Amino acid sequence: ITAILIDSLNTRAEDQVKVLAHILAFISSVPPDTRVAIYRTGEQVRIIHDFTDDVEGLRNRLMKDGLAAPRDDQKGVAVQQMIIEPWQAAVMAETMEASLSVAYQEMAGVEERSTQFLESRRIEYTMNSLEAVGNHLAGIPGRKNLIWMTSGVPMISGQTRDPWPENYVSTLRRVGQRLASQGIAMYPVEAAGVRPLYLNVNAGVR
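User: That's the sequence. What structure does it adopt?
Assistant: Structure tokens below.
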């Protein structure tokens, strides 16, 4: 039994297209007696197709419902430059620089806190999705394989002005242990595949 979970919460739209191609290739190569189900994360888990050995039916449903627009929660609050009229600048000449500095720092702090809150919510939704799929699979006897197609979630999230970063290691470990107790082996797979690493250096031999 193999369940495939498409992580649309943490995967860019262009990478979801790659995920779709990989899954189509995978289900075309599985042994005839393999039962496959496909799910997709969101604020709730959506069943694209529950367990079946009908490869053609899986392919058709995947092409119809396999993609989703990723959540647009990676953008923080936009920081806009303060506009001051000339007469205001004359009045504020002595204190303007200090006032602007404080204002920009406050606005940057709001932006960072907003970004971290949205990231925390995204991770919460992701963990809830994994647990929901685990509960769905728990009633099936025997070993289950869960292939998690994702670009990943951060283990630690911190902002430059935050001395206490958020740590999600214990949450990830708890979800992994719960899945294991339900007879589920989870295999995270990089959604975009292996990417080249560009270091912008020149290597030469002398």
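The helical segments are 13-29, 55-65, 86-91, 96-138, 169-181.
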